[in-house]
UniProtKB/TrEMBL annotation:
SMART domains registered for this protein in UniProt: MoCF_biosynth
GO terms assigned for molecular function: metal ion binding; molybdopterin molybdotransferase activity
Task of the protein: Catalyzes the insertion of molybdate into adenylated molybdopterin with the concomitant release of AMP.
InterPro entries documented for this protein: MoaB/Mog-like_dom_sf, MoaB/Mog_dom, MoeA-like, MoeA_C_domain_IV, MoeA_C_domain_IV_sf, MoeA_linker/N, MoeA_linker/N_sf
CDD domains, sorted: MoeA
Gene3D superfamilies in the record: MoaB/Mog-like domain, MoeA, C-terminal, domain IV, Molybdopterin biosynthesis moea protein, domain 2, Molybdopterin biosynthesis moea protein, domain 3
Enzyme Commission numbers on file: 2.10.1.1
Species this chain originates from: Sphingomonas leidyi
Cofactor(s) needed: Mg(2+)
Name of the protein described by the UniProt record: Molybdopterin molybdenumtransferase
Transmembrane segments: none
Similarity remark: Belongs to the MoeA family.
GO biological process: Mo-molybdopterin cofactor biosynthetic process
Length: 394
């Protein structure tokens, strides 16, 4: 048997081989959760002119301590249209353009006005430029604002809008086909015959992919029959095929032979990971293929570590791997074996505590867990209070 591939190496190989899907231009309102396909530069300077950041009076700092004559008004969207000279001031509002000649804003709380006469009624602005947003404070035209491969976050959508964009270059949605295999599997809610169980993994995976830019193709539940699986694989039309079940070494584990019969090239199979060891990765025509183990928790963990990052990479993400963080352990943990352990755990008062039984069939334990404790392969025993790496899952 070939050696088990370390998780990081498997992730590296998987992502290195993944080519992002084609580019498209997407209206800003539809870009949330996607990744920039190209660098995005500013089409304009922001602010385009010096603006007031407060409601008050535009003045010349040199004229302090006043008094001034108010000669007009500048509001956001309605500039004054002229400048001010010595001893003159302009009523001004937040976001309004500063008139030529003015360099400072006196906030209205520190001003006393009587008709067109304005006097200082407080300490006044501390320095020239007080309460003024100078032209280009945020960015200048042609500045690089979003790099290719960066996530389009809510803030970046707003940034692109104020930079003059109505749409952004992203990748089209990733077409992900999902398929479960197993003679025992019946759609949820359907009557169960002897030895049958409700099927969980297509729902689980679809929900895990819900936040990603995907178009799901449901290939259903297929029986443990190589000819049926092979026919489904031959008819494939997607960017990524994700199967669950039939990935191991039993007589009814037929995903690999069916994939190979359909012409797939298997890149790797079996990872130093618990749960999730028998995951396989390969290619079938233009599509990437991930064959996940059938145990629901194994499917969940491999989807977290491999499917989601691969979908993100196909969607153009430069940095698609999930981030871990470090917390203290709330109880001791035994040494790990040759596989990295991803333990279903809860954070209690900031301390991670693993569930007592870590069987990869146990969905109730998974559903209670808020994180996975990541224990590297070959890690020694850990004591209460030792630092542990966790991956948040809820
Ligand atoms: N002799 C060996 N046996 C097993 C090994 C091994 O190395 N040598 N590996 C074990 C590990 S680790 C895992 S994980 C499982 C994975 O096996 P398969 O991918 O072949 O999964 P199945 O046998 O098809 O199913 C396992 C288990 O999960 C249930 N299942 C499957 N699909 C679904 C689904 N869509 N919804 C709900 N439940 C599902 C299935 O009924 C089985 O109980 O293999 C070990 N065996
Ligand atoms: O790796 Mo299996 O995925 O232990 O349950």
């Amino acid at each position: 048997m070939s050696a088990l591939l370390p998780v990081a190496e498997a992730q590296r190989r998987l992502l290195a081989r993944a080519m992002p899907v084609a580019e498209e231009t997407c209206p800003l309102a539809e870009t949330a959760g996607r990744w920039a396909a190209r660098d995005v530069a500013a089409l304009r300077t922001q602010p385009a002119s010096d603006l007031s950041s407060m409601d008050g009076y535009a003045i010349r700092f040199a004229d302090l301590p006043g008094p001034w004559e108010v000669i007009g008004e500048s509001a956001a969207g309605h500039g004054f249209g002229g400048g001010i000279g010595p001893g003159q001031a302009l009523r001004i509002f937040t976001g309004a353009p500063l008139p030529p000649g003015a360099d400072t804003v006196l906030v209205q709380e520190e001003a006393a006005r009587d008709g067109s006469r304005l006097a200082l009624a407080g300490e006044g602005p501390p320095h020239p430029g007080s309460s003024v947003r100078p032209r280009g404070l945020d960015f200048a035209q042609d500045d690089l604002l979003i790099r290719a491969g960066e996530a389009i976050t809510p803030a970046r959508i707003a940034l692109a809008a104020i930079a003059g964009h109505a749409a952004l270059p992203v990748r089209r949605k990733v077409r992900v086909a999902l398929l479960s295999t197993g003679d025992e599997l019946v759609p949820p809610g359907a009557p169960l015959g002897p030895d049958q169980i409700p099927e969980t993994n297509r729902l689980l995976l679809a929900a895990q992919l819900a936040g990603l830019p995907v178009e799901l193709i449901d290939l259903g539940i297929l029986p443990d029959r190589q000819d049926v699986l092979e026919a489904a694989f031959r008819a494939l039309d997607c960017d990524l095929l994700v199967t669950t079940g039939g990935a191991s070494v039993g007589d009814h584990d037929l995903v690999r032979p069916a994939l190979e019969a359909a012409g797939a090239a298997i890149d790797f199979w079996k990872i130093a990971l618990r749960p999730g060891k028998p995951m396989m990765a390969g290619r079938l025509g233009d599509a990437a293929v991930l064959g996940l183990p059938g145990n629901p928790v194994s499917a969940f963990v491999t989807a977290t570590l491999f499917v989601r990052p691969l979908v993100a990479r196909l969607a153009g993400a430069a940095d698609p791997l999930p981030r871990t963080r470090t917390v203290p352990l709330g109880e001791p943990l035994p040494a790990t074996g040759p596989r990295a352990d991803y333990l279903r755990a809860e954070l209690i008062d900031g301390h991670a505590r693993a569930a007592t039984i870590q069987d990869s069939s146990m969905l109730r334990t998974l559903a209670r867990a808020t994180c996975l404790i990541v224990r590297p392969a070959g890690a020694p025993e850990a004591k209460t209070g030792d630092s542990a790496e966790i991956l948040d899952i809820a």
